[in-house]
Each structure stands twice: as C-alpha cells, then as structure tokens.
Amino acid sequence: MTIPEISVVIPVYNEEESLPLMFDRLFPVLDTLGYPYEIIFINDGSRDATLPLLLRSWKRRSDVTRIVDFNGNFGQHLAIMAGFEIAKGNIVVTLDADLQNPPEEIPRMIRCVRDGHDVVGTIRRRRRDTFFRVTASRAVNAITNRITGLSLHDYGCMLRAYRRDIIDIINDSTETTAFIPALAQKFAVNPIEIDVDHEERKQGRSKYSLLRLIRLNFDLMTGFSLAPLRAVTMTGILISVMSFIFAAYMFIRRLVIGPEAEGVFTLLAILFLLMGVTISCIGVEGEYVGRIYQEVRRRPRYVVRKIYESDDEISKEAGQ
Ligand code: UDP
Ligand code: MG
User: Fold this and answer.
1) Which burial class, exposed, middle or buried, applies to 192 when counting CB atoms under 10 A from its CB (0-12, 13-18, 19+)?
2) In a 10 Å sphere around its CB, with 0-12 CB exposed, 13-18 middle and 19+ buried, how is residue 296 labelled?
3) 6-207+300-315 has which CATH code?
4) Is the pLDDT score of 167 beyond 90?
5) 116 vs 95: CA distance, rounded Å
6) Residue boundaries of the structural domains of the chain
7) Least buried of 22, 55, 128, 146, by fewest C-beta within 10 Å?
8) pTM of the full predicted structure?
9) Best substitution site from 8, 70, 98 to test ligand 1's pocket, by max atoms within 8 Å of Cβ?
10) Which atom of ligand 1 is nearest to the CA of 14?
11) What is the pLDDT of residues 33-67, one digit of tens each?
12) Which residues contact ligand 1 via a Cβ below 6 A?
C-alpha cells in the first residue's frame, strides 16, 4: 500500500442497509480525488450483516481499505478515536456511514485543509432530522459554546477534516469520554466551518436514543468545562443567603408578633424545592466524580478483535 495522503475514518454500527449505497458513492469520489487514500471502517460491535458487508468490500478493495473490528459497542467517538490511531494520512476525514453527510463534499473539505486550515468543520444546512432533534441540538450548541468558551456552530455534524498535527494531539488525549469535534476545536489554530447539505436518514434508524444523546451531551459539558460545578456552588451560596434573610425575618417576627404555627405547607413546599435543588447538585457532582473514576481505573477504552489490512501487511490480532 502506498502511503496514503488522505485517510477517511468511518464508524459503523448496524448499518447493513446503508453500506452498499455508501460504497457506491464513496469510492468514486475518492478514486477521482487524485491523491493516494485509505478508508478505515470501524465496526462498533454491529449485530447485523455489517461486518460481512465490510469484509466483502475489503476483499474487493484491500489496497485502500482497512477494517477495525471492535468486540463490542463502544460508541461513535471512541470508534473514530480507534480509526485516528491507525490513520496514516496527512489529512484525516471523518464521515457517518448512513449517508446523511454527502461524501461528495470531501474534495471541498480537502481543499480547505490545503488552503491552510487545520480543522474543517461543517454546518448542516436545512438539517433533515426530526423537529425535536433540530431544536434540542440548537439549544445544546448555544449552551455548549457559552460554557466551554469554544465556538462551533454544529457540534453534532461528523463530516469533518483534520490536519495531521491535530490528529496527533487527539491521539495523545487518551480520555475515555472524548467528544471529537470539541477536542479538535480546542487545539485548532485556524479552523473553518463550511456549509454542507444534510440528507434524511433513508436506511436504518438513528443509533442515538434520547437517553444516549443526553449522556453524550454530559460528556461534552463535563469534558470541556467546570461551569456546571460553578453553577452548583453559586446556587448553594444564593440559597444560603436567602435562607439567612428568611431566618432573620422569622426571628424578629417571633420577638415582635410571637410564634407562628401556620404556613406549614408553604414551608414544606420550599423544603421540597430545596431538596430537589440539592439532589440535582449532587447529580452534577456525581457526573464529574464518575468520569474521574472512569479515567483512574484505566481500563482499555475499547477492545479490538481484529484489524483487517491489505495482504502485504500482516493482519494483527490486537487488544489494546
Ligand atoms: N455509530 C457508531 N456507534 C454507535 C452509534 C453510532 O459507530 O454506538 C455510527 C453510526 O453507524 C453512524 C454514525 O455513528 O455511522 C452516526 O450515527 P447516527 O446516524 O445513528 O447518528 P445521528 O445521525 O442520528 O446523529
Ligand atoms: Mg445519522
């Protein structure tokens, strides 16, 4: 295999319906690119016909294809990380397997890197997702930018290109709860965001349930900011000040008017509210503590069952 200039990294999880179409569109784009390239598919523990389909494509195009086969589902971001670790190209492009991001945009992104940008992000124009996803994603983008101090218009769009130096930095960041676009943005010197089309998911279903999306966004928030912890502290201070004023008022009232026994339920209501606040604050702290615990255990972030590479390289049995 010639040393590739471009590496395309694609995480795949149960995408048997999308893959054939994906191959039909991706290979022609890359073949006409004029650069040596490689495609790295990461099979993220799929339980359908994804792996056989990938292997068939690998056998046909083993000169440019490599497959990393995980032994379980470790999530999209860790799958991309695994691809980054073995990518050889000077420019690395990430892409979803479901064709929501058009592969035809890749040449334009590569041109941007050639023009001197180290990270090329994309913004989904006319985004074709459910109304709920689009609205929630807008809110998350705005909040995330505020609390992390980063500036990205679209955290969720994975059609992105990175220059080698950024990939090396990301490879050095061995965190278990990585959020790749934010990580890259943090280290980028000259990033750019371009508009791309977004297509409906025509085959298969989104792999993100509401719960998974919430978890992912907690990763993003906690991984890049201590603002939620500060908000907890500020809430605590605010409540203490208000309680102090309230207690002082009750004390003076007792001296002037005498003891009061009514309003018990109002007090209970206030108490319940404060209990709610307390429990959520413990939750926020728990999110951080849990992540620290995950990091210090230093378990493998993902387990590779096998890497399928071209014949001139030995297929590795690897576990890392
Ligand atoms: N994906 C993955 N592991 C997962 C979930 C998703 O590798 O645990 C892949 C999936 O196959 C696709 C990409 O990540 O290539 C984006 O997933 P999806 O299209 O379901 O996300 P959405 O577009 O709904 O945000
Ligand atoms: Mg998708």
Assistant:
1) middle
2) exposed
3) 3.90.550.10
4) yes
5) 21
6) 6-207+300-315, 227-297
7) 146
8) 0.86
9) 98
10) 11
11) 899 999 999 999 999 999 999 999 999 998 899 99
12) 11-13, 15, 44, 73, 75-76, 79, 96-98, 100, 156, 206-208
